[in-house]
Amino acid sequence: MGAGRLASRIEHVEPDNRSFFLSFRDEWTDEPFLKFHAHQGLELLFIHEGHGVVEVEGRSYELEGGALFCFQPYQLHRVEIPGRADVRYVRTNLTFDPRYVEPYLAPYPKLQAFLRFLTKGSLPAPKYRFADNRLSGLIESHAEAVKKSGEDQEEARILFLIALLRYLQLTVISPADLSPEGWSVRKTAHIEAIMDWIEGRFRRSFSLDLLAGDLHLSPYYVSHLFKQYTGESITDYVTARRIREACVLLGNSDKSVQQIAQEVGSLSAPYFCKLFKKHKRMTPLDYRSALQHSPKR
């Protein structure tokens, strides 16, 4: 990538079209770098060198070598690097549609749950640490595989994603970030069943009693277990899921705010706007505008 360009745009990852994007050790020098955008896919931003600031939904994080940032689908984020001739900004960017790899994770339920957490879970923070040599080895192996004559490109990408997710699961993102220590298989299965139930019904009016009844559990147990596992209430999780769906609709349709409010939970427009601004630090229309138009310098 050439230096001296200020990038700012929304980048889309469509199913069956750019479902996988990888840029290894992309380098930026000399002039300031500023990007404010979101993706339809899951973005993993690995920082090899550089210093700057990453802002995600009103919170700031230091950008530094060895940092990994995980940006969930439609999560607006701002990356800013001050321009200095003696400092390089070197990054690896991997963006992919989780639906691209999910079918291949069916034999590996724990890895499948891990990807689901990265994509839809409540991450405590988007920043983690990684070992540069391990990552480089994985990507270089992938690059060598796709160069081979007759190599199936899609198969190579799937195998690379599985290996990378396994590496992240084992060495980068601590189990403490995923679930409390000492949790039984039974409790974890209950949590997954709760999340599956919410995923299928979050567009309807939420009822804790109905959820508990369908899973043959008590409302108190469901509520207590979910809070203990995720650190947030089940109603807060449902709200966050609705907001994520609203972001998809704002970015991919011309539906009105009133229509979207109805579609993501039969909410009134004023109440939906209040929830959206609380979560995203901007109104739904401002969010749509941020996706559709490059911000001014």
Automatic annotation (TrEMBL):
Organism of this sequence: Paenibacillus nanensis
Sorted UniProt keywords: DNA-binding, Transcription, Transcription regulation
HTH araC/xylS-type domain boundaries: 192-290
Record-linked SMART domains: HTH_ARAC (SM00342)
UniProt-recorded name of the protein: AraC family transcriptional regulator
One Pfam match: AraC_binding
UniProt signal peptide: none
Annotated GO MF terms: DNA-binding transcription factor activity; sequence-specific DNA binding
